[in-house]
Amino acid sequence: MFLKSFSLVSGAVGQIFILGAMGYLLVKREFLTREGMDFLSRLVIKITLPAMIFSRLISEFKFDLKPQWWIFPLTSFAITLLGLLVGGIFVNLIKNNEEKRQFLSLVAFQNSGYLPLCLVAALLSPKEASLMFIYIFLFLLGFNLLMWSLGVYCLSYKRNKKFELASLFSPPVLATIITIGLIAMGLDRFIPDVILKPLSMIGESTLPLAMLVVGGSLGLIKLRKVKLKPIILVVLIKLLILPLVGLLFIWRSPFPQMFSLLLIIQLAMPSATSLSLIITHYKKEDLLISQGVLFTHLFSLVTIPLFLSLVWIR
User: Fold this and answer.
1) Whether the model pTM is above 0.70
2) Measured between alpha carbons, how far apart are the two ends of the chain, in Å?
3) Reduced to 3 states, what is the DSSP secondary structure of residue 313?
4) Were 61 and a residue from 57, 70, 80, 156 both cysteine, which residue would form a disulfide, CB within 3.0 to 4.6 Å?
């Protein structure tokens, strides 16, 4: 049973790997420049992903069907807190204060959107995938608020730095809040198909474009000398310890399988590629981020099928 599940999940991960590899090769062969990657990234973050969130939530989310929707943003808070707590156990093994902050960011924040969405699309039936998409969108509402507040603060730390409220409201967060607000007020039924269908078509391009962005982002990474100790710790915590904690938790709790699958998917994900964007934007020295993002993505090709298979046979 385990081998059958492992083979199934590996096939889904393989499909995602091929899409990501295409992005990686496009960058390495210079068909995509850094400017082209910036454009693709902005296209996904500001246009296609918000369109996907809006069209999917309007079509499929109803408060009476999902009255406990608020659990998913809270779950994202809990997973980030778990990463910080486990990372905090090991952080004193690292001497440099800047490296400590980057280490904690790598273990606290995962690739919580693009990879899970693509994995779900490849792994589940259309009906199950539609439900899981809603779970992930609601999860991202909490995650993005943390990433663009706590994550930015941690990586761009300055003693006198002011908090920027606007940084919390990225286009995907705004799309989720606005759509949930429209549904809560009952205004969703007044949105005509002439608007909804084009948005849905634009949103459907998100998954392949997102994987091109992830693969291309990895292709842009230029490694210097690998800092073995902190990177080994990041890989062990992010890809082994956190999903193991998640497995122990769901095996002792009567959660529905789809919610359990969401937990393990998020806990098994590699470090967020957005961390590299934050480092670059705030002009901070990249001591660990690029190395951590690259190596967690590489090793996750093995660990993701392993842990998802263990949930599959639960």
Assistant:
1) yes
2) 10
3) coil
4) 57
- Residue 271 has φ and ψ, to the nearest 5°, of -65, 150
CATH entry 1.10.3780 includes domain 2-312:
no
> Model confidence at 269, in pLDDT bands (50, 70, 90)?
very high
Contact between residue 73 and residue 218 where contact means Cβ atoms under 8 Å apart: no
| 23, 211 contact by CB (below 8 A) | yes
The model's pLDDT over 153-172, given as tens digits with 9 standing for 90+, comes to: 788 766 455 555 556 678 88
Give just the sign of the alpha carbon dihedral 41, 47, 53, 55: negative
Per-residue model confidence as pLDDT tens digits over 273-287: 888 877 776 777 778
Q: Give the residue carrying structure tokens 């499929």.
A: 60
CA distance 108 to 161: 22
Which pair of tokens denotes residue 33?
Answer: 């420049």
Is residue 41 classed as helix, strand or coil in its secondary structure? helix
Q: Are 239 and 119 in contact (CB under 8 A)?
A: no
- Which amino acid is it at 235? V
Question: What one-letter code names the amino acid at 15?
Answer: Q
**Lookup: tokens for 275:** 């961390």
Residues 80-117 pLDDT 10s: 999 999 999 999 999 888 889 999 999 999 999 888 99
Separation of alpha carbons 92 and 88, rounded Å: 8
